[in-house]
Amino acid sequence: MRSASNKMRNPEMIQKSRNDYIEKGNKYKVVVIGVSTGGLKAIKAILSVLPSGFALSIIIVMHRHKETDGYLERSLNDECNMHVKQADEKEEIKAGIVYVAPPNYHLLIEDDGTFSMSVEGPVNYARPSVDVVFESAAEVYGKGLIGVILTGANKDGSRGLKKIKEAGGLAIVQTPETSEAAEMPKAAIAAVDPDYVLPLDEIGLLLRKLESER
Amino acid sequence: MNNTNENEKIEFDLILEAIYQKYGYDFRNYAKASLRRRLRYRLSQSNLKTISEMQHKLLNDKEFFDTLLLDLTINVTEMFRDPSFFKALREIVIYELKKQPFIKVWHAGCSSGEEIYSTAILLKENGMYESSLIYATDTNEMVLDKAKSGIFPIEKMKDFTVNYRKAGGLASFADYYTARYDNAIMDNSLKKNIVFSNHNLVTDSVFGEMDLIMCRNVLIYFNRELQDRVFRLFMDSLRPGGFLCLGSKETIRFSSFSENFENVIEKERVYRRIA
Question: Which of A147, A199, B248, B261 has its CB 3.0 to 4.6 Å from that of A178, i.e. a possible disulfide?
Answer without folding.
Answer: A199
